[in-house]
Structures are given as C-alpha cells and as structure tokens.
Amino acid sequence: MVKGALQRGLPSMPVWVLAANPSCAFCEALGGQEVCEKGITIGAARLVGVAYGWQGIRVLAEMHQ
Question: For the whole model, what pTM was predicted?
C-alpha cells in the first residue's frame, strides 16, 4: 500500500482504524499521528474510527525493505 502511494506521487497517506482496535498502538509505533476521528455505523453498531497519518511515508517503505 505504501509503495503504491509513493509510485503515484503521494507523499502522505491516512489509515483508518476502529478506535477500539489494538492496531492503533501499531500505527502509533510506526510514527502515525491521530489526525481525526468519526463515527462509523456497521450493522446496528455505532463505532468510532480513527485516522492516522504520516507526513513522510517514504520512511515506512524503507522499514519494509
């Protein structure tokens, strides 16, 4: 996903995660910063989604080489 964004000339990207998901800690460990949140309805459940953003995704691509 990161390499594809870089190939398209996109220098940054958001990743949406449900706020209750333990993956939030993973995004933060990779340098992601919470940029916004919004309510999400899935079926009858009302949940909160969090967007994490990176201002230089090239560093993410370099981590996975």
Answer: 0.74
**CATH number of domain containing 13:** 3.40.630.30
3-state SS, the chain, equals CHHHHHHCCCCCEEEEEECCCCHHHHHHHCCCEEEEEEEEEECCEEEEEEEEEECCCHHHHHHCC
Q: How many domains does the chain have?
A: 1
| pLDDT tens-digit series, residues 6-59 | 788 877 788 899 999 999 999 999 889 999 999 999 999 999 999 998 877 777
